[in-house]
Protein 1
Amino acid sequence: MRRVNDQVVLIIYGLALACTIKIDASLVIALLLATSYSAFMTLTESNQLWRLLCFTGLFFAFSVFYPLCLLFSPLVVYHMISRQNKLVLGVSLVLVLALAYHSEVIPLFPIGTFLVIGLIFAAYADNKTQQINTLATSLQKTRDDSTELTLLLQEKNRSLRDKQDYEIYAATLKERNRIAREIHDNVGHLLSRAILITGAMKMTTQNSSLREPFENLDTSLGEAMDSIRKSVHDLHDDAVDLKKALEELVADFSFCPIDFSYHLSHTMPREVKYNVIAIVKEALNNVIKHSNATLVRLTISESQALYQLIIEDNGTTITPDTPTRSLNIETRGIGLINMTERVKKLHGTITFYSQNGFIIYIKIPKQ
């Protein structure tokens, strides 16, 4: 936009000089030629030298017949400087000065002097525009770098928050496990001993009036023991970290490398969690028993409505426990049937593929 402004200023400057000489049809033709030249040069790429020479040559050719065109020569020089073609610039300056010197229409003073001033102004305007464009480019680059850095910092902060949340979650699970273990080892053992003592006293007492209190005591202690056992199991079940459990399975699997991808942002329900662990164990056992795979990919992810589990390997061995493309029950082994039953219990779907390896694709709806 600034270069357009520079060109408009130079055209107005040339028009002002021309008006001091004479106003007739030749001035209108010179103005049209200057405007057309400026438009063509603006649309011409800097590396299209032949167009540059063609348009500039035509302008100077018309200047021979319409000398007033020379008053717009600062515009030509401006375009030559902007394209940094020193040879064409030098030739253009020589032609301008030569044509102006031999022109009978343009007096050397004062119009010739003002023409030289116009040429100097054209060089100055191009230099300032280049400086401003360079500064604008530098500013835009700085803004882009700043935006990129801001995005990187936001991503880093998000990662740190996620890591902090996971550490808090892991610490919570660890504490739950500790509490469950303490209850089981201490309170559970004390209750067990109390139940045994109560049972022994109930069997050995000869006083019939004490039998009913012992029965009630034995029942209460049994209910307390069941409640403690349920609480311990609930604490332990909630404390299972699915990602850590799967990572341990991957670490213990030495048959071939496993590419493990985990993309869950929320905690999976306990029942789903345990079935997923069992399915992955069964699938990895099948790889060891029935496949010659050299790579296993384990991917668990979620969408808005369901969980997805994909277990695939690049093995080529087909055995009775690996189905072909057909999903008939006869083509499945016991391990795959067990997987199917587990997924069915969770109201999900399981699909087996044996093309280009073996793939287990499971979808489980969120409750």
Protein 2
Amino acid sequence: MTEVSALRESQVAETTPALKAWLAGAEQKRPRRGDLVMGTIVALDAEGAWVDIGTKSEGFVPPSEMLTLGRHWQAKPGDEVQLYVLRADDDSPVVLSLDRAWRHRGWQELEAHYESGEPIEAEACDFNRGGLIVDCHGLSGFVPLSQIAGNPSQDGLALRLGDRLKLKVLKLNRGRRQIILSERAALHHLKEQQRKALLADLKPGEVRRGRVSGVHSFGLFVDLGGIDGLVPASEISWAEDNHNQASPKPGEELDVYIMKVDQACGRVVLSLRRTQPHPWETIAHRYQEGQLVTGTITKLVDFGAFARIDGGIEGLVHISELAERRISHPKEVVQRGEALTLKILSIEPQRRRLRLSLRQAQWGG
């Protein structure tokens, strides 16, 4: 044996074990029925698709196993896709399915949404007497009539076909291929998320625009865009007695001042009156000493009577300013609730004091 021949035999001897190991590994990598594999599309047309899945020969996707392509998603040669192995015989190409892989991902997504409680999106594709049938990643789901928003009639179900619906997964059974969904629960979930986001965004001291959603003896409820805040009766007006004040009507839009936000309880306390200056802050621009005004008697005391002339402004009519004659108690001249013409004697905005006179308004002086 020549020196060259000996060298060649030595190289073959060293290479053969490595080659055998590689071939064994390749055989181990050959997929089996039911496996999910990744592959790269090599060719794609109406006759099917050829996909490189890392085996000795390319895998084949029949047209009947790629019906979701074009309806739910797009692909082209060079794209990497997930596939389900239908058949993997030793002497023929591996037969694959894009549709079954798509449905497998659909089950995974549905299970994830079921666990998290987050809504999923699906298209209404059919209906029956009981409700809507929807397409969830190639899987048929059912939305009972009672779980459809708006309580539609059976005839109205046809109008929902083609709609993309936000749905919450109520029940899943993969073995029975049972998927029960709810549009009403999904809308409730989304509204709750919006409410929580709005609640976190509200800050005491802000002024927000809202709509009156309810009027009660204890106050107003105002919808701030997903959460109702309460305006206590005492915060509707600067006037101490709100019963005689014009109250906002349901549906009316108005600005409200945020007084308190309770994140734990989800409660918001609002004020309507604090969006306006206190009447004492503007009294000097509206009234002057010597002016005659109409006032309503609100309280009688030994030393005189209090009268309200505007909103939250009350002034004192001293007992000496109630009549020309000497009296022992204000009830001899005036009664609570009585409206009278009064004269402004003095205005002290800083001290919030207003002196009034009935005597000088009626008899001069």
Protein 3
Amino acid sequence: MGTYAIHKRNDRSNPPLVSIILLDWSCRERFHALDWLTSQTVPREQYELIWVELFDRVVPKAIHDADVVITCNQKRSYHKHKGYNAGLLESRGQVITVCDSDAVFPPNFIGSIIKNFRLPRDEPEQLVLMHYEWRTDAEYPEHLASIHELSAFVWKELWPNVGACMSVRKIDAMRFGGFDEHSSYRGFICGPYDLAWRLVNAGLREIWHEPGVALWHFAHPAPYFHPRQFSLSNLRRWFEVTYPHCEYHALTAVEGFSTGRVLPLEENPEVYRLRMSGRRIGTAFEEKYATKTGPAGFSKLQRLGLRFALIREGLMRCSGFLIWIVEKSLGKERFEALYRLFLRCAKFLLKILEKTLGRSRLQFLRKYANR
């Protein structure tokens, strides 16, 4: 489905409650997140792990530990949101979670999502759930075995990192167009907060989980954008910023949040198809208008035709007034004679057109000529 390839599917008969979408763009040095996510307090069948690679790298550990493995086969400048949508479309859970794919997760992380959405239920709680993420300048230790060992490191002050971890109902993600695939989201500066903020604009309640259950993120070997720790990898990361941003938040997302936008600027075609097919329209009369244009709207040519139709309608409405002036000017007898001559000419012209174009195509004119 779409332009991505699926290397492993979730073939379990019962759908999970939660789908965890983990993104990579051939940049992850370690895959410890999979170890922490496969060691949760809830039964493994209650959640699925979806590993999405934006390019074409297939990681053996992801094949072994994840339930779904996808490669998007993107070229040059990557687009994370297209990867998110691939994970969204292949997910089977009632709730989808998009989070850092190189973090440490506490054993009750999945349980906290299930609890907040009050699963299992036919209708999970409608909300936008965000988890905090602790960060440190230390690199990931080789033999970290327990969440309790994290206290040995120095962690920075906690702040609401909107790109770290977001959970929403899958049905809400689909209803509001999934993740925006607009070109301004290409490159490093983007994240699941695009969808989160549009859902908040639509009226969903956003809550931040208490910091007792949070993600823990160790530093990369080449820190992002650090002015005093130059490296070629650091410089390469900088060139992955392809569009102006607002304090390292995607400009388009901030603008959408501020203006109250609820749908993406560029919707994934498959998400669009599924969203539109889920509509429940009351009458066949309305269905005629529900599929009139497609996602692009009316074309310029169609709009021009409707503009001419409006002008014609105006002229037709004015014709009664013009006829009244002619009748008053010529007198009733002369006007009737002129009107009969007009009808004879119209019938003659209609016969010529019927022979040329066919009688069936001109039935709508016959009622006027037969007066």
Protein 4
Amino acid sequence: MTLACTLRSRLRQLSLAVSVGSAAALALGVAPLAAQADTAVKVGYLPVTGHAKFFVAKEQGFFKKEGLDVDLVEFQNSADGINAVVAGKLDVGAFGTTAPLVFYSKGSDLKIIGGIMGQDAALVVKPELAGTIRSINDLKGKKVATVRMASGDAVLRGALKDAKINWKNDLHIFELKNPPAVIEAVKSGQVDAGLVWGPHDLRAEQQGLKIVVRSGDLSPGHPCCRLVVTSAKLKDEAVVQGFLRAILKAEKFAAENRKETIDAIAKYIKLDRALLEKGYYSPNLEQGSDPNVKGVQKFWLTMVGSEFIEGKRALDPIFEVGPYKKALDSLAKESPKDPFWQARLKEFKERDVL
């Protein structure tokens, strides 16, 4: 037998073996590896620089590497977004801390599995009012615009309560659709002050407004957008952990690669690059990806104390920190000497272990 004949014979045998193997796999109800598709995951986000980890994970292929086909769905405010999570239209959402806690307090089945950002809200006024509105105490008798169920809104009401100012009677709070609407209300004089989040605080400054108070000054280190799911979504542990691994990888990447991070953000938020960079790498933006249990507990007490919610329901069941811990541990195990992962492990012990 010639060499060519021998090769042809062996190729036919190999082809037959592959065919038999594929048929056997199908008979057992198992799809061949090449035919397995990535798991589709719908993720709700807000068009803000603080949500950059979603954009980075998508553009850098971190979701893909975890076997996830992520569809990012934009919302203009937290109230609409959290409604979509509760209704099962989203698999994961990141819509502040206020919105999930309000819905949870009313009986919704929600679980906090991680975080995207913290702080980053600011109170803005027209320049001519910057001399008279310099602190929370100066808001008495004023008109203030906020975005419904924004995290900064709850921080503001808590600070007013601490200052012995009744937010229900001593001033007028108007809940608007989104930060651009708040900015326009302030510029037009319809309200005296407005609460927005980044990068809209920077946009407000570009349009001539002044920042007088930041949410981080009122409640240092407060959490903002938490990663939330329903209990049903937790059943697929591999998907949840893979998603959190991708988010953690994105956090690390963003910390080490500014240009590529801004490239990713720019695909989803149409603002000047310099503004995007200033917004994401701002000292006023906290970028941890952990659930921040202790921060959320404090936030809950603030909301209850300011009569934003009743708080009759026990809070502890909302936390599901296991998937995050497993995702973090797996990444730290892959690179045990990397200081980034060691810092995240320390952060977890400080903020998420009671």
